[in-house]
Amino acid sequence: MRLSEYFLPVLRDNPSEAQIVSHRLMLRAGMIRQSSAGIYSWLPLGLRVLKKVERIVREEQDRAGAQEILMPTIQPAELWRESGRYEDYGKEMLRIRDRHDREMLYGPTNEEQVTEIVRASLRSYRDLPKILYHIQWKFRDEVRPRFGVMRGREFLMKDAYSFDLDAAGAKRSYNKMFAAYLRTFARMGLKAIPMQADPGPIGGDLSHEFIILADAGESDVFFDRRWVETDIPVIEVDHRGGLEPIFQRWTAFYAATDEKHDPARCPVPEKELVTARGLEVGHIFHFGDKYSRPMQALVTRPDGAAVPLQMGSYGIGVSRLPGALIEANHDDAGIIWPESVAPFRVGLINLRPADALCRTAAEDLYGKLLAAGVEVLYDDRDESPGAKFATMDLIGLPDQLVIAPRGVAAGTIEMKHRRTGERRDVSADEVLDQLVAPHPDPLPASGAREGPA
Fold first, then answer.
1. Which secondary structure element, helix H or strand E, spans residue 289, and what is its range?
2. How far apart are CA 404 and CA 18, in angstroms?
3. What SS3 state is found at 233?
4. What DSSP line would sit under 343-360, residue for residue?
5. What's the per-residue H, E or C state across 242-310?
6. Which of 118, 356, 368, 430 has its CA 20 to 30 A from that of 101?
7. For 345-402, how does the pLDDT look when each residue is reduced to its tens digit (9 = 90+)?
8. Residue 428: phi, psi to the nearest 5?
9. Are 407 and 345 in contact (CB under 8 A)?
C-alpha cells in the first residue's frame, strides 16, 4: 500500500480527551475515531490490527475444538427472563422495543441465546461435549466510558460456551479454554497472567481473568513475586490429551484480582506478594447449571435420567486487545507492534521521491516485497525526512527500510528494527531473505524463566 493513497489521518499533538497511552496513540496514529462516548469507528490501520488479533483468537479456538457460529446482536427479553437476569443486569443493558412493542435488548453477552440454541438440538449425552463460539459486537452502557477502546460501550468480543454432561467434563472444557488462552496471548507477545477472579454477574464457582500488568490497569492485582521472573511461552497443547497438568502448572503461583484476594487467607508471605495494576484481556467461567436449569436445557444420561447441561463461558476482548498491546508495547516515539499483530510487516521510506534513482530503487523493492507476500506500507509522499520517520515510528511497524541517495549509490538499504532501534545497511537480496523467512519478534530481555515448575 502506498502511503500517498492510504487513509491515515495521523495527529501531531496529543488529543486532550485521551487519558492513557493507548488511547492517545490510537488517535494519533489514525487507528480509530470517536463516534460518540465509548463508541469508535475503526479506520484502515486500526482495522488491520483488529483483524490480525481476531485471526489469532479464531485459530486458537479452532485448534481447541471449538466451533464457530454467529448469534444476533439483538436478543429477545423473554430469554433473559427465563434465566432470571433481565431485571438483575442493571442499566448497562440497553433495552429497546421493536415496532410490534416486543421487548428486546442489545446483547451484552450471550449465555441465554446460546442456551436456547443448544436446548433445541442437544438431547443425549452422546451429543456431548460441545464448545461453540462467535466473534461479535456487543454493547454495555457504561456509566463512564473511558480509556478509548479499553473501556468502551460498543466492543468486539469472542465469547465461547461449553456444554458437558457432568462436572468432570465441564472442568476438562474449562482446561481446554485455559490452555487456548495461554497460547492466544503468548502468540501476540503478551504476558497474560491467569488470576483467580470473581465471576460477577455471569455467575459460577470457578473463574480466572487473564491479566497483563500495566500502569493504566483498571484495578489492583496481587501475585507471587515469582511471576515477575516467569515467561509464558507459546506452549504445546494436545487438546485431546490430559489438560489438568497444564492448568496446575500455570496456576501454581498465587495470583488474584482485587475482588478475589483475601489478605487473611493469602498463601504468599507479605514480602513475596506483589501489588500492581492490571488490564483484563480475557475471562473464563465455569457456572454449572446456572442457565441450563432455569431454561430447561436438559440431556439424558446413559441411565435415561434427564439432567441440566454443565456449562462454562469464555470471553476475550478482541477490540480491547489493540489497546492492551499498545500499553505493553510503546516508547516516547509511538507504538511498537509485535510482528504477529502489526498492521504491516514493514515500512518502506523513500527519502527523495523526486530523485529518479531513489524512486526506481524504491519502486523495485516495493514490487519485490509485494511479490514475496510481505505486507508493506510504502511512504512515497513528498514530505520531509523528519516527517516520514516520525510517522513510521508513531505507527510502529516492526521494521523500516530506508531508500536514500547515499545508499542507492552504494547498493544498500538502511534497515531499522523498531523495537531495538538497531540500524544497519543491507542489500536488497538480504532484505528479502530476512523479511520472507519468518522469525520471532524480539522482546526486551528479562532473563525470565518459562513457567512455574
1. none
2. 36
3. coil
4. SSSEEEEES-TTSHHHHH
5. CCHHHHHHCCCCCEEECCCCCCCCCCCCHHHEEEEEEEEEEEEEEEECCCCCCCCCEEECCCCCEEECE
6. 118
7. 999 999 999 999 999 999 999 999 999 999 999 999 999 999 999 999 999 999 999 9
8. -60, -40
9. no
